[in-house]
Amino acid sequence: MKKLIVFIFLSVLASASALAQTGSAFPNFPTKKLNGQAFPLPDSVKGKYSIIGVAFSKKAEESLLTWYQPAYQTFIQKKKTMFASEVYNVNTYFVAVITGTNKIAGDDVVKKIKENTQKELQPYILTYIGEFASYKKLLNITESDEPYFFILDEKGVIVHITKGAYSAAKLAEVEEVLSEE
């Protein structure tokens, strides 16, 4: 695992047959920051809208990386500049899910993630080491090769879900949802 497998990041389009549908609560997910501090979701992000991206396979990770630059510029970096045309009051997190045989070397994997992550992005990276099958079912992640993105409202309720690689249209959908908050 050279990069993050799962990122908590963006919630967009909901599927009609999903267990995790818009209007349902995001499940309790015991993540940690890269410094080891516990950061349970959704409790740690309640109070404002949040974008959470989840990918748990190498192929899904590759698609998730296509979101990195546009999402960082739109939702994280713009908070820090006075020239931002639209500033979103939103939490943005990436979660690395470490499962299977990688669980044994979990601490080493987290250390490697930290070493390979740009310093300015590290506060937005979360990790989860453990069983993921139950979360996969609760979130209705049916395509292992696709990243899933969830937008949570201030109470931790899913308001939008999407999946797949970045596109300008998907980012516009996310921005539209956040503009309505």
Question: Could you explain the architecture of this structure?
Answer:
The protein has 181 residues and is α/β, with parallel strands linked by helices. It has a single domain, classed as Glutaredoxin. Helices cover 27% and strands 21% of the residues. It contains four helices and seven strands, in the order E-E-E-H-E-H-E-H-E-E-H. Strands 2-1-5-4-3-6-7 form a seven-stranded mixed β-sheet. The radius of gyration is 15 Å and the shape is globular. Mean pLDDT is 80; it is low at 1-19.
Topology:
Elements: E1 29-33, E2 38-41, E3 50-54, H1 58-76, E4 91-98, H2 106-116, E5 125-129, H3 133-138, E6 148-152, E7 158-163, H4 168-179
Parallel strand pairs: 3-4, 4-5
Antiparallel strand pairs: 1-2, 1-5, 3-6, 6-7
Radius of gyration: 15 Å
Low-confidence stretches: 1-19
Which whole number gives the mean pLDDT?
80
User: What is the H/E string?
Assistant: EEEHEHEHEEH
Strand order, main sheet: write it out: 2-1-5-4-3-6-7
By DSSP (H or I, 4+ residues per run), the number of helices equals 4
Structural class: alpha/beta
| Global geometry | globular
Brief synopsis:
With 181 residues, the protein is of the alpha/beta class.
List descriptors.
disordered N terminus; 181 residues; 7 strands; seven-stranded mixed β-sheet; Glutaredoxin; alpha/beta
